[in-house]
Here is the input.
Amino acid sequence: MLIIGGGIVGLATAHQLLRQFPGRPVTILEKEDAPGRHQTGHNSGVLHCGLYYKPGSAKARLAVSGIRQMVEFCQQHDIPHDVCGKLVVAVNKAEVARMEKLQERGVQNGLQGIKRLGSEAMREIEPNVGGIAALKVPQEGIVDFPAVCRALACEVEKAGGRLVTGAHVTSLRQIDGWTAETPAGAFSAEFIVNCAGLHCDRVSQLAGQRRQLRIVPFRGEYFELKPNRHDLVRHLIYPVPDPQFPFLGVHFTRLIHGGVEAGPNAVLAFAREGYRKTDINLRDLCDALTYSGLWRFVMKYPKMCLSELRGSFSKRHFCRQLQRLVPAIEPADLAPGGAGVRAQALAPEGELVHDFHFVRGPASLHVLNAPSPAATASLAIGAEIVKQMHGD
Here is the structure.
């Protein structure tokens, strides 16, 4: 068994496979010098419990079971985590109506303890929050996902699996099984699982699959609250999503090792690993700009695209979006933070692929869309991949 990609999904898949089939040969090929260097290591560390996702979708099902498994895994391995809960804040009557539907969706997804709060009750939890009503979601939390990766890698190796770093897959061929060529050598197996994240569509193409979906990298940029303003946010503060827009919008996240992040926006990255505005990869950029799906997406959401781009260059504009949730925040309270790149699968029609998307090929399985909450749900995704490998 070859697993291509040593992010949290690839590691969790190997972990689940070795739990169910002890002694089975499993090799993870990771192109970087350590696992979890990209999406896993650049997210805000939120444990998502499945509130936002369409009932019956893979996202909803795997998030609900995945957060339970992830919390148990963290408890077993002494990984820093905190099920601190979050508020989803409605700032006007239209959002209150959407918030009520969101509460119904959460109940349908099996979440427990969701409660609607009025203005006084919500400010007992978050004294500086704006808005007129909120949902209290007690099952959400925060975690150190890089520490989860390290623990998973250790468990995989203890169970007899192998993690090979510096193993960028440059070619795949199938003759009496699969052979993957990498700078670290050639590796063979009867079955491959593609968990390559930002490069999953290209790996699927190496395996002979047609690229019906394209990965378009969206960079999410964060600000951090300055230390003297950490008291503005106690837990997690999220907006009520607007169904007219494809992204959730900015929010506040208390970090597991201290500090508070504010963001992210969503702008086109000029490289699939483009964590800075100046990061440019001509191959990645041409791949995105020559894709009709991207331009159809821009034409569907022109105002949103302009607003996100403006927020990338204007702290004041970014701050105005944050003030919808915490009115007391000012541009001077914000310091530049980190950034992550979301491996977003985009259909030719210009629609984002919102659910997890798995494609079965000859002796192969390709994870072609695993956006948030993939880190939270990674152990459940790994178990799902093992089921699909065995035709269940």
Observations:
- The chain has three domains: 1-81+139-213+353-392, 86-137, 214-351.
- Residues 112 and 139 are 8 Å apart (CA to CA).
- The mean pLDDT is 95.
- The longest strand covers residues 334-346.
